[in-house]
Write a structure and sequence with these properties.
- The protein is of the alpha/beta class.
- It has a single domain (about 5-190), classed as Uracil-DNA glycosylase-like domain (Uracil-DNA Glycosylase, subunit E).
- It is about 45% helix and about 10% strand.
- The protein is built from ten helices and six strands, in the order H-E-H-H-H-E-E-E-H-E-H-H-H-E-H-H.
- It is globular.
- The two termini are about 30 Å apart.
- About 35% of the residues are buried.
C-alpha cells in the first residue's frame, strides 16, 4: 500500500462509528516529517474544526515548542499521529480515553514509514503507556526524565488547560524542560532549511 493509499484509508476509517460525534479521523503525516507529536485523541473543538490541535491545547503546545502555526502545520516538519484519530467523547473528568482499536489498526503502519524521524514528543499518559510501556512511575516521573531522553524523545504532560495545576506544582517544567525542548526543535527545523 502506498503512503497516499494508507492516509486515504485512515481518513475514511469508520471503526468507531458509535462515537458521540461520529468518526472524523484527524492526523497530519508525511514520510519526511522530522518531529512526531504523539498525542492522545482530538478534543471536541478540534473534531469540529477538522484540524489537529486547533484549540487552546494546540495554542499551548505551539508555545511549548516555540513554533508558529505555519511551522506546526507543515507536514514535512511535524507529524501529528494521536493514539486515536477521532474524538472519543466526554467522561466525568474530561475526554474519554482513546479507543485502543485505533492505535491497534493504524499506528504501526504509519510510524514504521518515517524516513528520518529525529524527535518523538509524547503527550499524556495514554501515549506514554503505548510508546514507553516499560517506563515506570507516574507521568510526572516520566516527564522528569527529559534530560536522559532528549535528543530522541520526550514525555510531556498533555497541554490541556485542565493541566494548569500540574504546571503550577512543577515549575521546573517551564524553566528547565521547555527551553531544552525548544532548543532541540529549533535545531531540527534549522537543519531542514
Amino acid at each position: 500500500m502506498s503512503d497516499a493509499e494508507l492516509l486515504d484509508a485512515v481518513r475514511r476509517c469508520q471503526l468507531c462509528s458509535e462515537l458521540p460525534l461520529g468518526p472524523r479521523p484527524l492526523l497530519q503525516w508525511s514520510r519526511t516529517a522530522r518531529i512526531l507529536i504523539a498525542g492522545q485523541a482530538p478534543g471536541a473543538r478540534t473534531h469540529n474544526a477538522g484540524v489537529p490541535f486547533h484549540d487552546p491545547s494546540g495554542d499551548r503546545l505551539r508555545e511549548w515548542l516555540g513554533v508558529d502555526p505555519v511551522t506546526f502545520y507543515d507536514p514535512s516538519i511535524f507529524a501529528i499521529v494521536p493514539m486515536a484519530f477521532c474524538f472519543p467523547g466526554t467522561g466525568k473528568s474530561g475526554d474519554l480515553p482513546p479507543p485502543a482499536r485505533c492505535a491497534d489498526t493504524w499506528r504501526n503502519a504509519l510510524l514504521t514509514r518515517f524516513s528520518d524521524l529525529r524527535l518523538t514528543i509524547i503527550l499524556g499518559r495514554y501515549a506514554a503507556a503505548w510508546h514507553k510501556p516499560t517506563e515506570a512511575g507516574t507521568l510526572t516521573a516520566q516527564v522528569l526524565q527529559w534530560e536522559t531522553c532528549l535528543p530522541d524523545w520526550i514525555v510531556l504532560p498533555h497541554p490541556s488547560p485542565r493541566n494548569g495545576m500540574w504546571l503550577k506544582r512543577n515549575p521546573w517544567f517551564e524553566t528547565e524542560t521547555l527551553p531544552a525542548l525548544q532548543k532541540r526543535v529549533r535545531e531540527i527545523i534549522r537543519s531542514e532549511a
